[in-house]
Amino acid sequence: MEYEASFLLQSLQSSFCYFFFSFALCFSIFSFLPYLVRLKAWCKCDVCRGYVTSSWSTEFDNLCDWYTHLLKNSPSRTIHIHVLGNTITANPDNVEYMLKTRFDNYPKGKPFSAILGDLLGRGIFNVDGDTWKFQRKMASLELGSVSIRSFAFEIVTSEIKHRLLPFLSSTASDEQDRVLDLQDVFQRFTFDNICRFSFGLDPGCLELSLPMSEFAMAFDLASRLCAKRALSLSPLVWKAKRLLNLGSEKKLKKAIRLINILADEVIKQRRKLGFSTHLDLLSRFMGTVNDDAYLRDIVVSFLLAGRDTVAAALTSIFWLMAKHPEVTTAILEESDRVMGPTQELATFQQLRDMHYLQATVYESMRLYPPVQFDSKFPQEDDVLPDGTVVKRGTRVTYHPYAMGRMEEVWGPDCLEFKPERWLKKGIFWPESPFKYPVFQAGFRVCLGKDLALVEIKSVMLAVIRGFEIEVDEPDNSPRFAPGLTATVSGGLPVLVRQRRRRS
Ligand code: HEM
User: Fold this and answer.
1) Which residues bind heme (predicted)?
2) 309 in ligand 1 pocket by Cβ < 6 Å?
């Protein structure tokens, strides 16, 4: 009897599932059709065939390298991938037009905010219009203040002194040479740093034992799975999986639930203990925003914006310096001149006085921008300055990775790593942000740019003045894992040795 009941129940369940799946399938096919028609999903042009069959991968290590090749060969420096409905440009005039001249016509758009919506909610990174304007104003005021800059600098120097340097010293003094993944070290460092800055919370990911913080793991997983959504042929695929709570969507839901629990806990604690005397971003925003869910969204956006970007920048800088020891030597010479040979950490003013160091950071991100491309979705049909027609609601992408490799912007030596190109008579000289949109540009330019530069330069100096970093196989070009920021598959394996004293 019991057996029959359970059998009946199972049959009912499976009929329900069958019905539900059939419904979801029909729904997907019907909703998919207009989408396919609009995309020209049947397109058989060489580029679309190359994309669909992944034949590009026989010649190129990364999709961004193939796009760069296509963009170099296009006279307008703009291409169209029909099957994706994506117009991709490396033309600085188009970039200026989208990010400044007709900014209002090029929002992030619904397809983007849907992908990150579950993780970021209404946070600044994921909204347009008035909600964005409100947060942008509030965040610009806070981030522009002298007190937050010195608070951020204090966190960076303490994290370097008490965690990064002791950790590298422990590895360097190992009897046997121990290979270390420097990318992982930087990701731990930047996560501790951005959490302390944003929440006043210290996950301690770079403690000597390299503990796996639950929060860091959930955050990693959630951003990876959101990036995976962007790779689906149609948003309907991940939306159907979300509806049915299946596979990666089930994991994403679980990871986001954990992030929410932890964030809520921090917010509650802050309210209980009083926030007016605290310097972190959350405490500052609490003065203006009363809604806890909104506060959580705002701060989680900062975590996403400020963590992997800095780790990606540091990873490529150390890889490039390993290939170009003369650059490391020049930085050491400059820092000895400004700081003397024995001072461990640079002061804020000393960082500003090191122009070659700054040039190295810019040059590295020219070739390896942490955010390789960025998409917008025009509200109205439009024509870009190079004559390309873009249709309302389709995707338009500007591509900093390809732009850093364009001869007409950077000259015939554009593929070479040469920090000197950023110096005029020894003084750092920035380029137009529309030629170098590494931090985006125009009205939505990155709000953490200055903080990021201070963090990157402080870490570079502390590490190269204290240690010799030997990269395992520096001649292998990086292969990037698909994601929101440039993460190298397999990390950056290195050997760390204490640097011998310089005379
Ligand atoms: C090398 C490091 C960094 C790079 C390359 C970088 C790059 C960018 C880019 C390309 C955007 C535009 C993204 C988009 O709209 O789709 C952006 C936005 C933003 N970044 Fe950064 N970022 C870095 C570090 C940081 C840090 C450390 C913080 C925070 C402390 C931060 C905070 C933000 C915020 C809040 C936005 C959103 C601005 C807005 O929508 O108005 N970034 N960043």
Assistant:
1) 446
2) yes
